């Protein structure tokens, strides 16, 4: 079954949401990761932090409650949950660097078998800036990469990143529309295969070496 881009992103976001636990403080990268909050498991409530200084980010607003002053790090208008607050950049980055974020979910240009992440720059192409990604990934307790498995057919899960790194040896989990990997001391472990993929398909579109968890088959 072939999925379109919207269906792929929904599948990934739904799978990411399963990693959240009640009370987690979570930071979500721009784009696909922010969609995960739409699919929270029943009875799971999390606190979403945005690096621009919002703690307790709520749902996207409709036309009746939109306020252009309340935005996330990507510039999209959001709402504030009851009990939420605003902070300055100093406090927001102190939370990130100080180990107060339980889970950070980011996209990637490349991620490799050693848990290295490259997601901020393609040499020779315009780069608006690295943002707060480097601060986020160093301080978080768990780092999940949520991304499409390939880019224009090219594998994004590689043996060794060739693009400038955002962080080294910090990725804990990789979630794509084809499967779920964990990063362990001995390398990548495929722990789930998507119903829309197969082991052969994953091998053909992943240049990194990986172990196959018997429970994923």
The sequence of SSEs as H and E is: HEEEEHEEEHEEEEEEEHE
- Poorly predicted segments: none
Radius of gyration: 17 Å
End-to-end Cα distance, whole Å, is 18 Å
Q: Name the CATH superfamily assignment.
A: Glutaconate Coenzyme A-transferase
Can you give the mean pLDDT?
93
Q: How many DSSP E strands?
A: 15
Integer count of domains: 1
CATH topology title:
Glutaconate Coenzyme A-transferase
Class per helix and strand makeup: alpha/beta
- What's the CATH architecture? 3-Layer(aba) Sandwich
Q: Tell me the number of helical segments per DSSP (H or I, 4 or more residues long).
A: 4
User: Which strand-content bin applies to the residues?
Assistant: 25-35%
User: Quick one: biggest sheet?
Assistant: 10 strands, mixed
Strand order of the largest sheet: 4-3-2-1-5-8-12-13-14-15
Question: What characteristic shape results from the CA principal axes?
Answer: globular
Helix content: 10-25%
CATH class: Alpha Beta
In short:
The chain is an alpha/beta fold and 217 residues long. It has one domain (5-216): Glutaconate Coenzyme A-transferase.
Overall description:
With 217 residues, this protein is an alpha/beta fold. It has one domain (5-216): Glutaconate Coenzyme A-transferase (3-Layer(aba) Sandwich), CATH 3.40.1080.10. It contains four helices and 15 strands. The chain has helices at residues 5-17, 89-97, 133-139, 199-204, and strands at 25-28, 47-50, 54-57, 80-86, 103-106, 110-112, 117-118, 142-146, 150-151, 154-155, 157-158, 173-175, 179-184, 187-193, 210-212. Strands 4-3-2-1-5-8-12-13-14-15 form a ten-stranded mixed beta sheet. A three-stranded mixed beta sheet has the order 7-6-11, with no helix packed on it. Strands 9-10 form a two-stranded antiparallel sheet. Strand 14 (187-193), helix 4 (199-204) and strand 15 form a beta-alpha-beta unit. It starts with a helix and ends in a 5-residue tail after the last strand.
């Amino acid at each position: 079954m072939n999925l379109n881009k919207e269906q792929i992103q929904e599948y990934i976001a739904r799978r990411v949401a399963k990693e959240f636990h009640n009370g987690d403080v979570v930071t979500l990268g721009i784009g696909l990761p922010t969609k995960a909050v739409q699919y929270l498991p029943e009875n799971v409530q999390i606190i979403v932090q945005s690096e621009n200084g919002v703690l307790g980010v709520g749902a996207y607003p409709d036309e009746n409650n939109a306020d252009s002053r309340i935005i996330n790090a990507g510039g999209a208008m959001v709402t504030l949950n009851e009990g939420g607050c605003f902070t300055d950049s100093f406090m927001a980055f102190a939370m990130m660097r100080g180990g107060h974020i339980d889970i950070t979910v980011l996209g990637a240009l490349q991620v490799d078998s050693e848990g290295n992440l490259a997601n901020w720059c393609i040499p020779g192409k315009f780069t608006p800036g690295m943002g707060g990604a480097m601060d986020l990934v160093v301080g978080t307790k768990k780092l999940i990469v949520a991304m499409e498995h390939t880019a224009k057919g090219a594998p994004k899960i590689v043996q060794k990143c060739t693009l400038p790194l955002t962080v080294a040896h910090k990725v804990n989990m990789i979630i794509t529309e084809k499967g779920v990997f964990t990063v362990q001391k001995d390398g990548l472990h495929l722990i789930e295969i998507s119903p829309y993929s197969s082991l052969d398909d994953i091998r053909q579109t992943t240049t990194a070496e990986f172990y196959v968890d018997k429970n994923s088959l």
